[in-house]
Amino acid sequence: MTPQQPADIALQMSGIHKGFPGVVALAGVDLDVRQGEVHVLLGENGAGKSTLMKILSGAVARDAGEIRIDGQRVALATPRAAREAGVGIIHQELALVPAMTVAENVLLGRAPTRFGMIDGARMRRETVALLQQLGATLDPDAITGTLGIAQQQLVEIARALSLNARILIMDEPTSALTERESARLFDVIRGLTARGTAVIYISHRLDEIFAIGDRITVLRDGRHVATQAVQGADRRELVRLMADREVDERIGGGLRNGGAPVLHVDGLTHGTRLRNVSFTVHAGEIVGFAGLIGAGRTEIARAVFGLEPFDHGRILVDGAEVRIRSPRDAIAAGIGFVTEDRKREGFVPGRSIRDNVALPILARLAWMGFVDRARETATAETAVRDLRIRTRSVQQAVRTLSGGNQQKVVLARWLATGARILFLDEPTRGIDVGSRQEIYQLMRALAADGVAIILMSSELPEVLGLADRVLVMREGAIVGEFSRDDATAGNVMACAVGA
């Protein structure tokens, strides 16, 4: 232990530097975390939070600086070395093996054995016990890839809990969870910290920070800006420290007078996942879908967009029935879909902004069988300007952008198609306060231009703040509808749980 380090300091990161080609990700960042505290790490997308945590978890090598755990200097050259040093991480971008079962993922690399063989029964029991801590009732034998994002998030959290880490990194752990699941997770976190576990908590939801945090460290542009206690912290000042500018957290949004009906879904049914779902969306209207995890919100969007089949039902666009058997049919009908899992389904990570924006409209940009590169570049540059995508050029690979800018690229793809009906599934998941407000403003601008928007979100304040009407789902069916004036948190949640 160094003379400067108090006895209760579990982790001390000093002067951490990290650079990538053309980018300084971290410039001399300091961070200390105490035993038994929840230390919140704040900053906009691209501030350096994820890079700092990747260094701590052994996934990325630092260029300079020192890391001490319980006073002892450590190298953490690999993820395994970090785990052996007592560091666990819950990734924002899920790091699960889709083809494996829930139990195999939770105890990956650490499965219990009996007589030299994997003890499947014990593995399932341990998995169920971990999931029960989170209030989850997932089948341990379920194939992980068949689960929704929210359920996979719970599997990721259970795996981290199984490590019994002394330092636990939680990177946006509630990004796909409802308020009920989030509250259960907070109880688990309080139990961990009561036993002395140090928790590093990354979130863009300021309400969570005040509910669970003890101290806050703010990063901006790869630099340490401030560390302070949560108690007495001012929300607007925190936002200003993160963004280096004033940002209004309020969603706002005024009631719009919807135009003619654009989309009508009639009796959509798919086994027990969708049960006789019917609704109408008008031009210039934002319709929000609320409900608990597994209620069927995402299934509606995927069925209408042609990603999943349905047994019965009709889809009408501008009053005429359309047959949608694939995303190509949906695009031809003027429908766009921003999926909840942007990295797997929203864009091609290794390709440039230009390639991603132009992908759905290549036929339109082609002449004599060849893509007109000049038009392709101009289309992408217009999107970068209009959506304020922060990038060096349209040639930059999308995987190198921050989460907020990646989401803007996904939106740009659908805007380039001229979609008049836009499904947005968790459009602000894992996005910082500033980028979130820009996406809200874009949604309102699109609605003002007559685009019909269907918003699926697990963040109830987001739905209530943006939607003209709120439809509530439970067990695959629409069980309630509220006007903007009647859509209160209490009314919607009571309907969602059947109270």
Polypeptide structure, described:
The termini are far apart. Helix 4 packs across helix 5 (149-162) and helix 14 (373-387) packs across helix 15 (403-416). The model has no long low-confidence stretch (mean pLDDT 85). The protein has 18 helices and 24 strands. The strands form six sheets. A six-stranded mixed sheet has the order 6-9-10-3-11-12, sandwiched between helices. The chain has a six-stranded mixed sheet with strand order 18-21-22-15-23-24, sandwiched between helices. 47% of the residues are buried. With 499 residues, the protein is an alpha/beta fold. It has two domains: 9-243, Rossmann fold; 261-497, 3-Layer(aba) Sandwich (Rossmann fold), CATH 3.40.50. A hairpin with a 2-residue loop joins strand 19 and strand 20 (370-371).
Estimated share of beta-strand residues: 25-35%
From the helix content, strand content and strand pairing, which structural class follows?
alpha/beta
Largest sheet: 6 strands, mixed
**What would the CATH topology of the largest domain be?**
Rossmann fold
User: Based on CA inertia axes, which overall geometry fits?
Assistant: globular
| Subunit arrangement of the protein | single chain
CATH architecture of the largest domain: 3-Layer(aba) Sandwich
Helix content: 25-40%
- Summed over residues and divided by their number, the pLDDT gives a mean of 85
Q: How many strands in all?
A: 24
Using the CA coordinates, give the radius of gyration.
23 Å
CATH classification, class level of the largest domain = Alpha Beta
The CATH superfamily of the largest domain is identified as P-loop containing nucleotide triphosphate hydrolases
Extract low-pLDDT stretches. Answer: none
Head-to-tail CA distance between termini: 55 Å
Number of domains: 2
